[in-house]
Each structure stands twice: as C-alpha cells, then as structure tokens.
Write a structure and sequence with these properties.
Largest sheet: 7 strands, antiparallel
Distance between the termini: 78 Å
Strand content: 35-45%
Number of helices: 2
Oligomer: single chain
Helix content: 25-40%
Structural class: alpha+beta
Number of strands: 9
Shape: elongated
Radius of gyration: 23 Å
Length: about 140
C-alpha cells in the first residue's frame, strides 16, 4: 500500500483542523445571534420580544386576583404593524399558545391579547394577559 508523502498528509491535517475550527466558530456565532434575537418580556413570562423591541417595563401592570393574574405591558418596535402581527402569529403557537381571532392567543387558562398601533418611528405593541372568562 502506498503512503502519502508527509508533506501532503500534514497539509490535509492542517486543512481539516482549519475547517473544524471555522465550523465551530460559525456555530458559536449562530448560537449568539439566536440568543440575541430571542429576548423575552420582563413582565410576562415566556413572551418573546422581537429583536430591536424595547419593553416599557415602568408602565407595566401586574397583579393577581382570585380568578387569575392580570398583566399588561407594552413595547416599541422599529417594525410595521403587519410584520409584528406576523411574528406573533408565527411564534406564539410554537410556544403552546392557541391562535384565536383578532390577535388573541389562549394557553393554560389565560388569554393573551396583542394590539399593535403605528407610532411615529415604528409601532407600539400592547400586551394584555387575562384569565379566561368564566374561570
């Protein structure tokens, strides 16, 4: 059996190491980008915020009552109303929210209502989480 010359073999090992290092670097960058894009509300657990969205934490309302919790918060975003609606219509069902008419979603005895209004520089998004009526 023929054995490749040491120069060729060393080059192949060098290239393999380089490819593996670059692959690892790309994977790390993709993970960091995904983590940065997956910010969540500080007020409503498990509510993703679009990258670039700024939540108005100081204006939030959060209290419990015997029938369940009531939570309201808002965020500004540099996106169109349509793009924000599409994001939540696509994202929330994957997190276990059942899609209801008029930008409402239901999960575990709660209803999340999302209202998006065009603002001066993008849009303002209002989130309202309430217990399911009759509970």
């Amino acid at each position: 059996p023929s054995i490749a010359p040491s120069g060729r073999s060393s080059y192949n090992i060098y290239m393999l190491k380089k490819v593996l290092m670059m692959s690892g670097l790309l994977l790390l960058m993709a993970s960091a980008a995904h983590a940065a894009a997956t910010a969540y509300s500080q007020i409503i657990d498990d509510l993703p915020l679009m990258a670039g969205m700024t939540e108005s934490v100081n204006d939030a309302v959060d209290f419990d009552k015997p029938a369940g919790r009531i939570v309201e918060t808002s965020a500004s975003a540099p996106y169109s109303v349509a793009k924000i609606r599409k994001f939540y219509s696509d994202t929330l069902p994957a997190l276990g929210w059942k899609d209801l008419p008029r930008m409402r979603f239901r999960r575990a005895g709660e209803v999340l209502r999302i209202t998006v209004k065009k603002g001066n520089e993008g849009s303002v998004v209002y989130f309202s989480l309430t217990p399911v009526a009759g509970k």
